[in-house]
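question for whoever is on the cluster today: can someone run the full assembly for these? two chains, 878 residues total. i dont have access anymore since they changed the login thing
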Amino acid sequence: MPADKNMRILVVDDFNTMRRIVKNILKQLGFENVGEAENGQEALEVLKKEKFDFVITDWNMPVMTGLDLLKAIKADAALKDLPVMMVTAEAQQQNIVEAVKTGASNYIVKPFTAEVLEEKISKIFK
Amino acid sequence: MDKEPKTLQEILDDIALKTIMLSPDNLVELGEILSKIEEVVAYKDPTLPEAVKKIGGGLKLIIEKIILGEIPDTDVAYEKISQAISMLQDICREKDQEQATASLKNFNNLLKELNLADTEGQTAGQDDIKMEEETTSEASVTKSKSVIDITQDKELLTGFINEGMEHLEQIEVDILSLEQSPEDKDCINAIFRPFHTIKGVSGFLNLQDINKLAHETENILDRARNGELLISSEIIDLILDACDGLKRMIMDIKTALETGTFEQKDYDLDSFISRIKAAQEGRLGEEAARPVPKLVGEILVEKGVADAEVIDKALERQRDSGEKIGEIIIREADVKPKEVAHALREQKAMASIASAGTANSAVKVDIGKLDNLVDMVGELVITQSLIWQNSHVQAIRDQKLIRDFSQLSRITTELQKTAMSLRMVPIKQTLQKMIRLVRDLAKKSEKQVDLQMSGEDTEIDRNMVDAIYDPLVHMIRNSIDHGIEMPDERATKGKPATGTIWLRAYQKGGNIVIEIEDDGQGLNREKILKKAKEKGLIKNTEGLSTFEIDNLIFQAGFSTADKITDVSGRGVGMDVVKKTIEKLRGKVEIDSRPGEGSTFTIKVPLTLAIIDGIIVRVGIERYIVPTIVIKETIRPRQEEYSTVHGKGEMIKVRGNLIPLVRLYKMFNVEAEHKDPCESLVVVVENEGRQKCLLVDDLLGKQEVVIKSLGDHMKNVRGLAGGTILGDGKVGLILDINGIFSVAEEQKLGMMH
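^ ran it for u. tokens below:
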């Protein structure tokens, strides 16, 4: 079953331009139902209020980092099955392994193309 | 992630099951398996063959490589994982050492088939698998080429420009605090993040130069964050330069967007990057800080002005004739005098840097030890004076003892001075930090500002240096933001377009005075009064001197800036400056000349350990009044004493009515005299206001070593501390600021 184009995606990044870039790429792939949050804390609040199907989060953010967000999601009974993809700029390998152990569905290294994102999403929503 | 303890067998069965069910590319399941394998590796059971841990470690390595996308053929890898896990299951069931060893051998073969073993020197035998810093191995993680065309996505670019600049400016603010606490991880992280983000976004926007510079800078900060690199002033400079570089590049894109043509500029990134690399390896200090002075000839050759041969000849001639080399070169070698002069100047500059570096050979000492030393010396001085004042000792008439004793006093006094001076450092470094600040702030506010400094060699207590930094920054910001006008505005006023800030430091008595003077517009008194009334800081404007009006800006909650600007503002007002300075037992004042400029004057004691005071007596108690606050001492006449309705008791001093504070009442002690005309009043000043303190007697002037009163007396208002006087008894040091507020709280209708 390919990923549902209508699924609701939450993009988390502290940099507005970055959120727009990710949104643009998602749009190219046909995902238009996208919400935004500025950091982990904000994302968590949004997730507790509204229903999302997928989270794409940056790693290094003020207030609450992407990894802490991931941990919080996995620790929350209502959210723990929500797939989370980590966006990372550096190929900091130990971090990636750590995130996958924590329960990240996948990760993607900046900068990425629409094709790579599509491939990663299709791996998650099979 | 089950919490209940399981046997190793159960964990392994769990893993085996998960492995069979594992669908390719499912990282979540891989992650779970990895966690479980780590449990296996960490499992404590002495009967277990060592091979279990080794195979487990190897499995970890394989799975990590799969997660990181470093194994091209995952199907094969999955198969090997299954095999390895059944091996583990076997070993755990049989616990047969020989079988285990055989399995380990098999497993190492598996690894070899996967190209994992040996090639990188890694076998499954290693307990902790080091993930090499393979910054270059991003290959498999899909590096993309340009995603967005610069000519196409203007909206995104504009967003990036604005947001990027904002972040870069924030870095400069944060870096000031980093300079204060170079090891503060939060601080480093706050600076790291913008570089990181800019790197990420620029990668998408195909802005390669920006990406590269941000990436390199990020690397340094990352290492600093991990404690591998100490933030030095060179690194701070580097970061600031990187900031400037990025800003310039971003502004160039802005221009490109506006004009519609983008020309690739050469930013000479390579030299910057090699500087960064040098800094990372710690070579920066050696390379940049201490150039060996070169010979004039060398400099000329390097500049390509003269040939090496020519110089050699000139040198030979110099040996014979004794003339100056420069003169010979000009005469013989057809080199322009200007060039030689340049070279000479360069040489001199280098020499002065080099000598500055070598002249102060120094030992780094923990400040706590110094404080302790100063304390102990203080005690020594006191004990010595106790002994001298002992009546038995006083009765001794032996000339030699008296001579020896006065020699001892001389030595202890000298010792005390030396101990004090150990903590003194030139104020230079602090002042020099202001150069960059002024330059940056001026640029940011588009004003032209010149900074003139004097008295950089003035010495100040080490503890004080750090403490006065923030207030200084604030006042300089204030001067640039509110004082200095825009260049065109200055021109219409007939002032030079470039404003000047004078930063002066000098010693006056036991105090260091720092003045920050600007030739800006001065304070707008009407605006201040209006604001002060609005904020309820004053009730009526009558009777306030211009000095008092100007100094209202130091009141809490006061800010005349119409809007919070980028430069000053940010929620910290001048009241914070004042509080900081007063905590240092100093004072700050502003003297403003409308239209001509303002002068901030900070006065702080040379050291926090000693106070220059006048000892006064109230009844049997002795108090120390800091000399810095005392204006004069008088014995009032009957006609000078009066009670003003609503304001309390007053003493007329030189035509001014000054409120009287009866110290004995405030501290609840028995005074000798209650009539002011029979006792003395000490006129003290604080925040531009005066009060008369009623005392019985003046006992003398003395430098006293300040002792804290201890925690339980910390909250007693009006006292700054205690000291041990010459006779061994304790004298209390008055906190004038506290006394003023206690006295004022008893009255109404006054400010504050």
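summary bc i know u wont read the tokens: Residues 67 and 95 of chain A are 9 Å apart (CA to CA). Chain A has a mean pLDDT of 87.
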